[in-house]
Amino acid sequence: MTEQNSPQEVKEVHIQQAQMTKDENGAYLGQVVFKVEGQSSVYEITFHSKRGKEWDYSLHFAGEPRVEEEMLQMDSWIEENDDLFDYLLDTAWSKLPE
Q1: How do residues 22-53 score in pLDDT, each as one tens digit?
Q2: pTM recorded for the entire structure
């Protein structure tokens, strides 16, 4: 997926791994491990929803190196970019066992 953050900056998102589970209470938990072109950090975003309607997320480093400035940029990018958020969530959702 290619996302545009600013008029001059285009970033390619590379998915490395994704999963989604649903527990016995109907709550969902998903993770996507990804890397973004131009950054050295690898990230894991974890999604959580009690019923699959409203989603919370947390962003973590998935490995080394851990560049704090890149993490802050990535978190802002996800917050400001609904298409990126939806892409990552849809990637996890597609891995939900039937």
Answers
A1: 999 999 999 999 999 999 999 999 999 999 99
A2: 0.86
The CA-atom distances, in angstroms, between 98 and each of 45, 56, 95 are 22, 22, 9
Helix, coil or strand: residue 79: helix
CB 58 within 8 A of CB 46: yes
**Partners of 81 in the beta sheet?**
none
CB 50 within 8 A of CB 43: no
The DSSP secondary structure of 20-33, one letter per residue, reads EEE-TTS-EEEEEE
Residue ranges and CATH numbers for the domains of the chain are 2-62+77-93 (3.10.450)
The answer to whether 80 and 51 are in contact (CB under 8 A) is: no
- Residue 31 CB coordination number (10 Å): 20
What tokens does 70 get? 């890149």
Q: Parallel, antiparallel, or unpaired for β 28-36 and 42-49?
A: antiparallel
